[in-house]
Design a protein that fits this description.
By secondary structure, the protein is α+β, with helices and mostly antiparallel strands. The chain has a single domain, classed as Zinc/RING finger domain, C3HC4 (zinc finger) (Herpes Virus-1). It is 26% helix and 7% strand. The protein has two helices and two strands, in the order αββα. A two-stranded antiparallel ribbon has the order 1-2. The chain is globular and about 55 Å long. The protein starts with a helix and ends in a 20-residue tail after the last helix. The structure holds zinc ion (3 copies).
Length: 86
């Protein structure tokens, strides 16, 4: 008996790719959740919107910018990452 597991995989990976606008590009957690370092969503784990249009958890961006490989670039589009002034 053959199990059609292939189709399951296709569906799973498709779902992973789609909500790009709704998840942090660094930790891949949805924006209504927190970054991996925080337990509670809300003011303690705010979102940052970059001028390139990508958004991330503040904490994720802080960690990312501090890594040498980031070179100050957005991890999604590799443009210089600048915050939208509030
Ligand atoms: Zn994040
Ligand atoms: Zn956080
Ligand atoms: Zn970007």
């Amino acid at each position: 008996m053959k199990v059609r597991i292939r189709k399951w995989n296709a569906v799973a990976s498709w779902r992973w790719d789609v909500p790009e606008d709704d998840v942090c590009g660094i930790c891949r957690v949805q924006f209504d959740g927190t970054c991996p370092n925080c337990r509670f969503p809300g003011d303690d784990c705010p979102l940052l919107v970059g001028k390139c249009g990508h958004s991330f958890h503040l904490h994720c961006v802080n960690d990312w910018i501090q890594t040498e490989s980031s070179r100050g670039l957005c991890p999604m589009c590799r443009q210089k990452f600048e915050f939208v002034a509030e």
